[in-house]
Queue: 3 jobs
Job 1
Amino acid sequence: MMDVVRSILEDDQGEVDLSKSTKVHKDVELDIDLGTLLASDYNTLDAKTLKSKPDSYLRDLTRDNVQLLINKVWELPVERVDEAIVATLPKPEYILPRSRVIPKPKPLTKWQQFAKEKGIQSKKKGKSKLKWDEELKKWIPTYGYKRAKAEEQKEWLVEAKDNADPTDSPFAKAKAAKQERQSKNELQRLRNIAKSKNIKLPKVGLPTREHFQSSQQLSEALTVARASTASVGKFQSRLPKEKDAKGIAKEMTGMKRKRKAPPLNAIEEKRQNKGLVDSILKSSAKILRDDCSTGIAEIKQSATSGGKKRKGALKNSKSKTAKKPKAGKGKRDLHKKIGGRKRR
């Protein structure tokens, strides 16, 4: 029972606190930034009261600080807008920390820039999103996919003109015209992006030399464009005196690398063969260098001795093994042991 009475008294005390005076005394004045509506209180906290009554203490402290902030707001010049009193806030002084950079405003498109210069204002904001259609007898949106569905319901039948080709489909023509408009809008969007990033683009046709820093880049772009087909440019016609870019065959899969020209003389051929042998016997290159350092005569002698040893080994192996017996041609006696091939 005492707990209930205590809670009622606390509630009554809270109601009385709501009618406090607008004048609040602080030992240290608050640091108030009206631009961000920020009030910083640097006064020391009452630790004993905070531990005993944390909720009421923090509520009273917050109420006093907000009262001081509102008092500063009422000192600003005010005006009445649509039956409401509005105060104009000054520029913020406190710099709020940000985790990311402030996003830059989007550059204006070509049409937006033109409308801004001519003072043209769009009237889309005042329009309603829905409009009444007399044919369908229902409200349809002014844009969006439901708008397209409504147009399909309205144009389910198209009257053919007298001079029109009977084989042509008006629905296919309308679809092709829509795709062409979409492509044009997409091209214009990409041009706006390139313009915002200061990228030069050709107005019509292929890029010119202004868009490439060197002739090598132009040659690489031409080679890549020609080889970007299913046949890797095999059936693509070439310009007069057109050649593939240097070093592009290694990066382009499917392009054949140019074969090396044959050696011009015996010295060049010997050098190429030596390089080929060195690349094959790369692991045993050290042994070959040791042999070469001893002299040509010793290398020849070791080669001949090795050949003689091998021939002698072959003779001994042949002498140990007997000759292959001939078959009996079907006249083999099973009771006699005659050499021949065993049948499995």
Job 2
Amino acid sequence: MAKVDHYIYKNQKKLRCGYTTGSCAAAAAKAAVRMLLTGEEVRQVKLETPKGILLYLEIEEASRTPEQASCAVRKDGGDDIDATHGMLIFATAVRLEKPDVLIDGGKGIGRVTRPGLACPVGKPAINPVPRRMIAESVRQECAAAGYDGGIRVEIWAPQGEAVAKRTYNPRLGIVGGISILGTSGIVEPMSDSALVATIEAELSMSRAAGYQSIVLTPGNYGVDFIEGHTKIDDARVIKCSNFIGEALDLAAQMGFRNLLLIGHIGKLIKVAGGIMNTHSHVADGRLEILTAHGALCGGGTGTAAKLMECTTTDQAVEILRQAGLMEKTMASVMERMSLHLSARAGEKMQVEAVMFSNRFGVLGKTKGADQLLSQMEGTQR
């Protein structure tokens, strides 16, 4: 497997980059077309990614007949090992009479079944940038060989259907295999962009399905709470991980009218401090925020000291409860949270929030949360 000699530094660690399934498909197509048109054996191809980084990718399992040629490139995720790492991505090339480049997906490449994604319904999940990379690679090889006819390229992955079950594709309505992805051609380890792109795709599908009101939750605690305590259709529930701010931005840009944020206090308390990326590497502040609001609501220095010594938010809530300050403190927290959410979302989208704890249940709601929740539990989209 070829390796990318390109590194990034994150959290004081040196991490090796990899290359996307889109780069694999483009390189495999490049090799297959060269073999088809020239008959030469191809062991390695040079590919320039949209990011401007040159890749020298090894070709595996090459085969050729007078009618077609097939080649594969093995996916390398670098230090960001994902479900597709190590997979072979194949391209099979055949001649066409008309001077055109046709790109299709074969075995192991997913098909889109729901509107709102970058690819039309019924088409293979080969995203626009990889599709362009494949087409450019094919045209380069045709020009080099002096060939002015057309080429049809089929991208396929023998392990694609099995591997796709470990990706977001089933949730996105992409069936039968993996997606061919990548906007830069390069995989950056621990990259936030891939997660944000998934959130954007889910929001886009909800909008295409006609929803004007959606529910955002950071993770599985929120999903479980929604399933156990509300009648909200799961089609309008979107997990945003730590990227609450980015999800709000995207939802506002797409024209959603209402958004209900439901989450565990361990994440949502940070929003009351204006922290919109709730990953602990970005910021914490949970106990500081609870202590500040507890003090504002009548807690003395002794209570503040106990709150700051806690290791979990549940411990802090218990201290507030014992001091008779829980309800007043949570109301103060939710008021501040509403201020930050509204400022981030803008005037055109109403944002409400529900914060809970697995131990204590619902801890607080913004003023319009109950009304918005009632609307979403009904038939109104």
Job 3
Amino acid sequence: MTHILTVIGARPQFIKAAAVSRQVARTSGLRETLIHTGQHYDANMSDVFFDELEMIKPTHHLGIGGGSHGAMTGQMLEAIENLLHIERPDVLMVYGDTNSTLAGALAASKVGIPVAHVEAGLRSFNKNMPEEINRILTDHCAEFLFTPTTTATRNLLREGLGVSRIVESGDVMYDAAVLFGQLAKTKGAGANRLGLPSSGYVLATIHRQENTDNPARLAAIFKGLEKVATEWPVILPIHPRTRKKLETAGLSSALSKLITIDPVGYLDMVGLERGADIIVTDSGGVQKEAFFHKVPCVTLRDETEWVELVEAGWNRLVPPDSDTCIAEAILAAFETSGSNIEPYGDGNAAEKIAAALKVIS
């Protein structure tokens, strides 16, 4: 029996883990224990995901959230290392590119436990992003590299990571979209349930550090969204950290022109995405979710890991330096679409991951 110890801590990881854990539970010869680091500790960004996605509950909740990157990662590393000695898993599994990801990978590699990295091989090629450092270091710690795309596989091979360590599984986010998209529709999740406009709106999510911690970029983004809001309703589920940064920068008044709501659960987010005319984001996961639901996307970043969506025309990459350029790009994206591509597999990534991990013991 292969014992998998899984480390998660942030919203995108809950979604990915929901798909994989479901497959692990139905695969004989596998058992899983879950650690929640607490990186996303708000109930609307944590607890609700476990409930509505019917995930297994964490056996261990570390309660480590907030603080600097170094402090957070160090506390997580120490706590996870202690749990590794208690649980004695056959493999430690991590997702994506957060501090929780890196802490889990470092802790396991230092005590000789194999690391499995789901969503391996993504590269923005911008090492100023904390996420880029996290994903590179995690990939080089890992024995099992589950890549979502051919591009990700090529990135790992270029870095000298052997093909024997790589499984091109496809994207577990696509698995989740297939699993939960219809459920969101059946439950009426999204704008109607939340008392919001049911169509003809822009959905925006802004949380990434290079945007929220830079007052000039933050101002450009929210002034750009204000301009768009004179023509179309802009719905913004606002991340607590983003709200705080707006207050600190003296930009809170920008929110008055937008429809701001607290962070929502996954099913309501899926419903909002499906009903939107445009999605504006700096989130890697939301870029893909926009594509899954065939909604044009504008990404407010200098680069993206999901280059195939830009190349296919589903995503517009707009550096957030000018509010005018941001507004023009958003308005230009209405009623557009990209080419017919299928870069993320066929919805059975979780099955491939479970099959690869089963052979460990």
